[in-house]
């Protein structure tokens, strides 16, 4: 997950083409998450469309609560998604479906 947390917009995570690809960051303790900011990769940006941001305390993706769905995000664009103080140790971004590729340039989590 480190490439999505390195502060560089020129690097990005990238999964293989697979079913339900995901990315997760462990915050190491439970926080109230106010918002998540995601920067899309500069090319092939449409791959992120339909991704789901989840917050929670479970390693199982679907046991965590949905914060937001990324309907569209242009190549290289940054958007902020409000999570309204949802509590969780894990922030997960995943794309439901078959033969999907998840690629993220940067993810920032804000809360307390």
UniProtKB/TrEMBL annotation:
Single GO term (MF): fucose binding
GO terms of biological process kind: regulation of cellular defense response; regulation of complement activation, lectin pathway
Keyword annotations for this protein, in alphabetical order, are: Calcium, Disulfide bond, Lectin, Metal-binding
Source species, domain of life: Eukaryota
Which Gene3D superfamilies does this UniProt record tie to the protein?
Galactose-binding domain-like
Under the heading SUPFAM superfamilies, the entry gives: Galactose-binding domain-like
**Which is an annotated Pfam family here?**
F5_F8_type_C_2
Q: Does the keyword Secreted apply?
A: no
Span of domain Fucolectin tachylectin-4 pentraxin-1: 1-111
- What protein family does this chain belong to? Belongs to the fucolectin family.
Cited function: Acts as a defensive agent. Recognizes blood group fucosylated oligosaccharides including A, B, H and Lewis B-type antigens. Does not recognize Lewis A antigen and has low affinity for monovalent haptens.
Q: How does it assemble?
A: Homotrimer.
Spell out the protein name for this chain.
Answer: Fucolectin tachylectin-4 pentraxin-1 domain-containing protein
Top-level taxonomy: Eukaryota, Metazoa, Chordata, Craniata, Vertebrata
């Amino acid at each position: 997950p480190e490439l999505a947390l390195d502060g560089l917009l020129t690097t990005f995570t990238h999964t293989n083409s697979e079913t339900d690809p995901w990315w997760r960051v462990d915050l190491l303790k439970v926080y109230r998450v106010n918002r998540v900011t995601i920067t899309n990769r500069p090319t092939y940006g449409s791959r992120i469309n339909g991704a789901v941001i989840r917050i929670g305390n479970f390693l199982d993706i679907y046991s965590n609560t949905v914060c937001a769905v990324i309907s569209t995000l242009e190549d290289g664009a940054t958007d902020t998604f409000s999570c309204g103080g949802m509590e969780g140790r894990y922030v997960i971004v995943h794309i439901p479906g078959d033969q999907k590729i998840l690629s993220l340039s940067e993810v920032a989590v804000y809360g307390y």
